[in-house]
Amino acid sequence: MALTVKEMLKISDFDGLEVLAGKGGLDRIISAVNVIDAPDVYNWIRGGEIFATTGYIVKDEPNMLKDIIIKMDKQRASGLLIKLKRFIDELPIEVIEVADKLNFPIISIPFNYTFAKIISPILLEIVNEQATKLFFSEQIHKSFTKLVINNGDTQQIIDTLSNFINEDIAFYDIYFDEVYFQISSDRFKEKLSSLSLKEVLERYSYYTIEVDEKIYGYLIKADNEVEKKDMEYNEIALEHAMTVLKLDIQKKISSYQIETKYRDQFIQDLLFNSIKSLEEVKKRASLYEWEFNDGLVTMVIDVDDFRNKYLEAEKNLDRKIREVKRTIFLKTKKMIKSSFADVKYATFGDSIVFLIGHSSKEEAMVEINSITDKLRREVKKDIEHTISIGVGSYKSSIMDIHKSYIEAQKAIELGRMIYGDDVTSFYDELGVYGLLKEISQSNSAKEFYNSYLLNLIEYDKENDTELLNTLKSMVRNDWNMREAAKELFIHYNTMKYRFKRISEILDFDLQDPKHKFNVVFSLKLLRLNQ
User: Fold this and answer.
1) Are 167 and 224 in contact, with CB atoms under 8 Å apart?
2) How far apart are alpha carbons 478 and 459 in whole angstroms?
3) C-alpha angle with apex 314: 312 to 315, nearest 5 degrees?
4) DSSP 87
5) Do the bridges between strand 79-82 and strand 106-108 make them parallel or antiparallel, or are there none, so unpaired?
6) At 44, phi and psi to the nearest 5?
7) In 76-208, which ranges are continuous DSSP H helix?
8) pTM of the prediction?
9) Are strands 32-35 and 214-221 parallel, antiparallel or unpaired?
10) Mind listing the pLDDT tens digit for each residue in 355-391?
11) Coil vs helix vs strand at 338
């Protein structure tokens, strides 16, 4: 344990030492011992020293000790040992008052003590303490080195750390979004599980696991009651653990990237129909302990308008894009894997593709619909981005999965055209829109929607109005003017006026079901064409 002033007083060689002032500072740690031979000794103090004096330097003016003590305390000295009855009979009351106020220990030593009798035992205790620390540090180093050599995992590192410190700890791996605990009771784990990482960092002491100015995780302490003498040893253990955790996270990232590269290539070959035999699929799948016994659905998740959001960034653009994308994909994978045990995935550019295995087509689609709605909300709330999701049709054989992938891509494309961003689109539910997409670029399609909408489009351009958007809002709200007015944040009377003006410009009756249908159809063609 560290040598404090209180522990120094217990040294067996000492007898007759008496605390004269500053009893509140007896827990100050002593790192060295020295002798005062000049009144400006404070200029050479590094912190932690305890000084011995006969009082000779202040024999003519004992009150000078007051200023010396103030400056010694400011330099973080640990205390003063003084021999009275030699040059000073007793301490002035002002000196005692200042020492008590600063909690700066002043201790009298017997008249018959030589400085050697004081200094040698203290130095011996300090050297023994340093030797103990070195031995403790060496034991920790050996334990963690053995772990690294034997490919110990993250949990084993946390377990080993807990053997050296008397505190509950947790490690938040923010790269892989994992949490590791070593606890004496479930209370600490329950508390942390109910808090966000931001709240945890605000409430508990933590150490940052950082490499090249990038944070990979946080080591959290429960702030248990620990004796001060143990704190320094705990710090040594924590420092060693942080070093090993840095090595561990880098090793895991390297392994993950290599595995991901080959896994992604395999899935890419499946989706691009580059594998022509089922036997080859099974052989390559066995490398990852995968099986494709059930039917599958392809789901593509694409980040909306991703890179354009960062075009104004001046530096570290690629790194920021990679980090945000990785965060989105990590959350996505975690949520999908929590709902589907048999799922494989690969990342392509700004998209992530999931192959979801399921024995029932109907159940698969219901579950996908439920999890994707939740996923879009979570990403939008936590990461402030939106994602579009496309779901292909169910295929009973892995050899047809490339068709489901093409369908999922088409579903995203059409979903964005029809509904905009932040939607989930099922290929099987697009129905006529797939056909509309094929014909929307034709001259006949353009002639058709222009015959209904061109007058309104040109009127908006000439008069800087928003009547086409008003019409779109009406259609979205099933021709309900009150609901459309709420959506556009305008008064109901304003909405009625606009509707009347739209009917006049289009020059047909929008109460007629036939015209309503043609307007809706024209708006869909226009959006698909754009």
Assistant:
1) yes
2) 24
3) 135
4) S
5) parallel
6) -115, 10
7) 93-102, 115-149, 154-164, 186-193, 197-203
8) 0.55
9) unpaired
10) 999 888 999 899 998 898 888 888 888 877 888 999 9
11) helix
